[in-house]
What does this fold into?
Amino acid sequence: MPFKMPSLLKGYQFKLQIGGVNGGVFLQGTKFPGRRTNDITLDIGGTSVKYPGIPVNDTNWSLKCFDDLDMSNRRVFERIMGDTPFFMDKPVFQRKQDLTMFFGNTFDRKLVLYNAYIQNLGDATMDMSNTSPVEYEVTFNFQYWKFVD
It folds into this structure.
């Protein structure tokens, strides 16, 4: 039985549309990716003056992934990370790609991670005594991100 996103999860809920996964991958975070501005310091007449520089994005973002017991989403993530099946000569997916995340009450808003790849897959916690989803952390690395209309 496919897993459905719980309706009352706390934190930000995202749906990642990615090839090889029907219906998308459900993720949960505690925040959106960060942004900051680097300072430019100029010495003028013995006084240091700071000006805002170029905006810089945080380049890592960790989210919790919810998966079925068959770990189908995790297998897709592993292929994206560059795991090439023994019977193929190329990875199944391009390692760096633009990833679209849908969010909002009806998943109608989007943000895009540009030149993104999966940097780390955390340990999966499994409880075979019930049908709760398998949970693990996924860390994305990316060049920059922005909200898209």
Notes: Residues 12-148 form a domain with the Pnp Oxidase; Chain A fold (CATH 2.30.110). Residues 5-10 have pLDDT under 50 and may be disordered. Helices lie at 72-80. Residues 75 and 144 are 26 Å apart (CA to CA).
